[in-house]
């Protein structure tokens, strides 16, 4: 796949992938008020722990949280952000997430909040090394190793991924908290990941509360899919959904390979299975992006949100943390994967589309062994075809050999572990780092 290579860590992983002797991957605010020059810095050097310090008026911060609690709206506010010693004024800040925000209140420590940071929200062209839009993620493990390693594995498999770095995060002079900071998928990301794409290309994001249902040719699809980059055009998406829901077997066999990059989709499903991500495209959070390239008129499924990978589940201990104790946490009362609204069910029955662990038959890959998966038309259509299903199985075997047996995944764990030991040893204990690293390796097999 044509993409911008992630620095340092991923380059080493790609080299290891080649040395493993595997085949090549299948995937051959609203008004600005001022302007500022670009500042250059190695923001996404993954072998270093970075610092992000936010300064924002306390009343403004409280008001932002209260607005969300009252209305569900995530409003932008302005603050000052210092990244690795470089200070940016009038930066856009807002809450980020869905289930990760369910436990927040105006008393939640600000350094535990999941926040989106946009340097250019109120200041034109204010960027750091060309990047302007990042999210300080909510942790589901003490170290976020599971998500960081997942992103490296995606890149090593040849899939479009996102930049990520370990971060010492603080707000208004608070104690620092270790968080994973990732690049948001936007126009800049599209330019990096798909540099040869047509100028009318579109990046769609599946909404957590949405679905892939057919709403008709003139239906409103904006409630199920946001347009994150490119043209405001739902036409290509409607064409795909029409085929999935209304096409005959013959039409699907002919048209789906034209509309969707099925080779990269097989790789996507295989990687999600290897990293045991319980919240992927057919998971409860409906987590995925769809990139439509106007030059090829073809979709690519893009992975997003891997904080539930490698057996991790949302845990308590505040929106930003995973609570006490090391290793992969489990559910606590009231905590569910991002975007999941549990349906009403009769006693003794399973919710529609949900597969319990260990169920055979209709169990679907690509969602951590089917755990909490739900019906998804693209996944079901793809796996219903014998040839495409065989391609998935072959890709799963190839990637297990290359990534797991070939040592690529283990190298990613080792690299991130060293980074955390060197740069965040005062924020984490050695046991916490070791426990999370061991948990990732144990799940991967």
UniProtKB/TrEMBL annotation:
The keyword Signal applies. The keyword Signal applies. InterPro entries: Spore_coat_CotH_CotH2/3/7 (IPR014867). Keywords: Signal. Residues 1-23 form the signal peptide. Residues 319-328 have a biased composition (Gly residues). Pfam families: CotH (PF08757). It comes from the Bacteria. Residues 319-360 are annotated as: Disordered. This is Cellulosomal protein. It comes from Serinicoccus hydrothermalis.
